[in-house]
């Protein structure tokens, strides 16, 4: 498919910074904008999809390729995003990071470490406080 223009890519990155998107929104964009399929993949790679488990093979050959990969490292991490849940971490400064974690195995420290990478700030459990808000899974 066609690549997005430099200005389209810049605009997309600006308006999606720090936001979550629904897979259905990205499907509509991919179908209606030149280079939309590439923007869809970028949204996935930047972990902007609120519901990556909704991806299907029809969303593009890149989805199929991710499902077929069995390589360790970053590629496997991206492919496993569909098994992860978005977790929002807010720093006391008001800065927000959204990280994707497997809630069955992740710890609070995992969430803080991942958020720290996005916020360029390490969390220190001896001075920082973490508060979890949500519902118990399966309820």
Give a quick precis of the structure.
The protein is mainly alpha-helical and 139 residues long. It has helices at 6-16, 23-32, 36-45, 61-68, 74-79, 108-119; strands at 85-90, 96-101.
Residues in helices, as a percent range: 40-55%
Structural class: mainly alpha
- Strand arrangement in the largest pleated sheet: 1-2
Q: Write the element-wise H/E pattern from the N-terminal end onward.
A: HHHHHEEH
Radius of gyration in whole Å, from Cα? 16 Å
| Model regions low in confidence, pLDDT < 50 over at least 5 residues | 70-76
How many helices? The count is 6
Strand content: 5-15%
Q: What would your notes on this structure say?
A:
- The chain contains six helices and two strands.
- With 139 residues, the chain is mainly α.
- The N and C termini lie far apart (42 Å).
- Helix 2 packs antiparallel against helix 3.
List keywords for this structure.
2 strands; mainly alpha; 139 residues; 6 helices
Layout of SSEs?
Elements: H1 6-16, H2 23-32, H3 36-45, H4 61-68, H5 74-79, E1 85-90, E2 96-101, H6 108-119
Antiparallel strand pairs: 1-2
């Amino acid at each position: 498919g066609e690549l997005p223009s430099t200005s389209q890519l810049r605009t997309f990155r600006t308006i999606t910074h720090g936001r979550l998107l629904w897979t259905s929104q990205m499907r509509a964009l991919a179908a209606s904008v030149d280079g939309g399929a590439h923007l869809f993949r970028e949204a996935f790679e930047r972990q902007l999809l609120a519901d990556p488990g909704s991806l299907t093979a029809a969303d593009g050959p890149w989805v199929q390729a991710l499902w077929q990969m069995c390589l360790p490292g970053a590629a496997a991490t991206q492919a496993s995003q569909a098994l992860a849940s978005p977790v929002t971490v807010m720093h006391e400064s008001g800065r927000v990071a959204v990280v994707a974690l497997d809630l069955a195995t992740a710890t609070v420290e995992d969430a803080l470490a991942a958020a720290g990478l996005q916020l360029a700030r390490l969390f220190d459990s001896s001075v920082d406080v973490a508060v979890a808000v949500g519902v118990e899974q399966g309820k």
